[in-house]
Model the fold of this input.
Amino acid sequence: MQDDVLLVHGGSPLEGEVRVKGAKNLVPKAMVAALLGEAPSRLRNVPEISDVRIVKGLLQLHGVAVREGEEPGELLMDPTQVEQANVADIDAHAGSSRIPILFCGPLLHRLGRAFIPDLGGCMIGDRPIDFHLSVLREFGAVITKRPEGLYIEAPNGLKGTKVSLPFPSVGATEQVLLAAVRAEGTTELSNAAVEPEIIDLICVLQKMGAIISVTTDRVIRITGVSKLVGYDHRALPDRLEAASWACAALATHGDIYVRGARQLDMMTFLNVFRQVGGAFSIEDEGIRFWHPGGPLNAIALETDVHPGFQTDWQQPLVVALTQATGLSIVHETVYERRLGFTSALNQMGATIQLYSECLGGTPCRFGQRNFQHSAVISGPAKLHATDLDIPDLRAGFSYLIAALAAEGTSRVTGIDLIERGYEDFQAKLEALGARVELPMRVAESVA
Ligand code: UD1
Done:
């Protein structure tokens, strides 16, 4: 499809200012949480990305009135008329998003049953939902699998429980939160994920009337309440998008002020950015990132659950590491297939070798299972343009960074995937001086 292609003319630094809005990994979940309230909710700082559009549609299918507020990026959600949605409609609407699985708890509380279609999401690993289903069963849900998806019922309501996750999964932690807040009794979740977006979701739920405490040892305790009200919340900024722009500044020898970026959520990233040789300055309203000149440093890096180095930061940083002097090592411990995108970087002139061994000390589930989840990047490499086909959201943005850092014009297909998580990215790129264009426009200008 013509619209899904972008021509990227590389070789010039990105300079200027971009603004990040609310986090992609919080906003859709806060929207789902609105279903739990008995009064309308107001969410601010909402980005226009496809994951938000999908959840908006799913809420509307379930009778939630969703409209935009007066302020840009404000969403008003009225869940007072929640109703059962048609299975085929849910299926058609959910697209490739993984968010529908989080509708389970709220729908079971509101309607006693839920239907979850077959899930999509970025193909960066198997991405099973076994933790989700197992915790729902712990709460007393009964799950029936059919070809079109899962039918879930809670004939006796959801009851608080004690659960421990095999891995601190973000989605499964959110599943527990959204089910437990209105379950009968107390829930104790061990080995929970504590990403900033989860803490922000907890803030949303607390505003609604929930009782949730988070301890330093990854244990979350929730005392169920019988009723929740609406909330008014400003979503935390997108630290993953902010880091993507930071890496773009580094890889293109640029200078980008990311308005909205917040130090607290990015401390681990900032430490690594500094070790690589990037410069930043933290201001009240955002963070400025730039390449200070001179060579960049090779580093050893392992992705991990928060407060470790976020896996979504890995792909954009790898592009910047192709410009560092020496051998960098990256051990990806969250997703088993999040390094496949590097073969395209090699086509552009990078030297990246993948290994199935764990090249790092962080305990990981993939070393024994023969997944190529470690990388050695040898730099600096002179990148040249090529044809790129985007495999997943973060790799997609990383390809744009690589194409912008490269000499020549790259043809990037699959850019729709980037819209899942980067609001208005073409306009932002243009504002930073990037030369990007749709091939259609090229054809028109030639004619
Ligand atoms: C979320 C984020 C994603 C981020 C990831 C890890 C959203 C919309 N997406 O994804 O950007 O990269 O957290 O920070 O918030 N797993 C299982 N069984 C399950 C669930 C997960 O084995 O039932 C495994 C996964 O395969 C993966 C690991 O646990 O290896 C982490 O996944 P998880 O934290 O659940 O990721 P998501 O919530 O899908």
User: Anything to note?
Assistant: Confidence is low (pLDDT under 50) at residues 441-447. The pocket of uridine-diphosphate-N-acetylglucosamine is lined by residues 25, 98, 125-132, 167, 169-172, 193, 311-312, 334-335 (CB under 6 Å). Residues 353 and 432 are 32 Å apart (CA to CA).
